[in-house]
Amino acid sequence: MTTMSDKYFRPPSLVLATIGISLTTFMQVLDTTIANVALPTIAGNLGVCSEQGTWVITSFAVSNAISLPLTGWIARRIGHTKLFLVSLLLFIITSFLCGIAQKLIQLVFYRALQGFFAGPLYPISQTLLLSIYPIDKRGMALSLLAMVTVVAPIIGPLAGGFITDNYSWSWIFFINIPTGILAIIIVFTQLKNRPDETEQKPIDYIGLFLLVLGVSLLQIVLDKGNNLDWFQSNFINIAMLIAVISLTFLVLWELTYKYPIINFRLFKYHNFSVGALNIVLGYSGFFSINLILPQWLQHQLGYTPLWAGLAAAPIGILPMVINPLVGRYGLKLDLRLLASFSFLVMGISCYMRSNFTTMVNYEHIAIIQCFMGIGIALFFMPLNQILLSSLPEKDITDGASLATFIRVLGSSFAASITSWFWQWRNIFHHAQLTENITSDNKTIKLFLDHLSGSEQMKIAQLANIIEQQSAMLSTIDYFTILGWMFFFLSIFIFYSKPPFTYTGKA
Fold this sequence. Notes:
0% strand, disordered N terminus, 73% helix, mainly alpha
């Protein structure tokens, strides 16, 4: 039997095909972060409170999380290329609808549709790139995709802030239209003759129902948990219970049903299981850093959103230089060494951040972010190659979509845990710092005597210092934990087994 691994499809221009696919991935990943900084403006313009405005993010995340694991099943029914082009077209249309929305309910609905149609784009991009590159060049293809995946979330907040400040929030959605149309034209002309095998199997209605119910409620719980005080809320308790029951039955059903909508059986492949766990934990750590650092800079050090974004942005500089080299030469090395070194660099960067003080300057923060870029450059390609290396060709799309699904879900868990932990440790350190502040404490009296202003102003200054320091200590705690997690992953990755060159054979 001849497979695409032995005789791969050659587009008229490999460069153009790669540009078209990469443009799509960049646009889709960018859209997951670009709306975040515009939320206050969107909420104000639509006449709702900020808390209601967060549904613009939640609706996208919920629908995206639902569609990701469905990607492999849909691709088998209509073909990879057709699914890619249809999803991209509908993503463009819903982006336009988001831009012209006049009410919050309209924007939330259109964002939900946009998130659903965005879901298949990243895993199908992986599949298409692997199918048009020869075996010895597939590392390069995955590295190019990895570079886009790293750079897009960094550019998103910067672009979103610039567009919102200088134009209208609608343009954060309208910019998808020309980019998407260009990508459709390129991909269609380059891949229209690509062979696609399809199969018509019964629709797994039970699996689909359990997936929609379980993932929707879980994503809402993760997004709203902090605002609703977690399990002090009846809504959170009921939603979490239903989500756990639904997802438990989903896994059991999919493992026993003949035509599953999600192929959980892929976890029987050793490298897929090890690679997926590493990429979920590693990406969640990376996501947490890029979540907590800008918040700390803005809330405690007085950075504007733009300058907080600029402080985090250097993380994308080195991947643009290193990723092509990793793609070209990475497969000649033990990929476990590359991934392990990646985790070590990210762990060291967390250790460096754990030594921050409230006096840290912009240059120091930016240099550490730039250093961490070395780790990010070596992260995606080796791990994607490892987790796909043992899968049969027919399961590549299922594997890519399932890995992306749990990675996205992992980042949602990371966002909730990060916010909860940061607040909890902040309260803990605040209590510790204030327990010895009494009117009889001579050190406190001496300190207050050196402050200027009235007695009330001096107390206010002291309270502000305590708040800053408790937030600083809470941030240090989190970076310390993340550092130890990355150090653990640098060892755990060696549990995977070579060879890691994808052959497409069982």
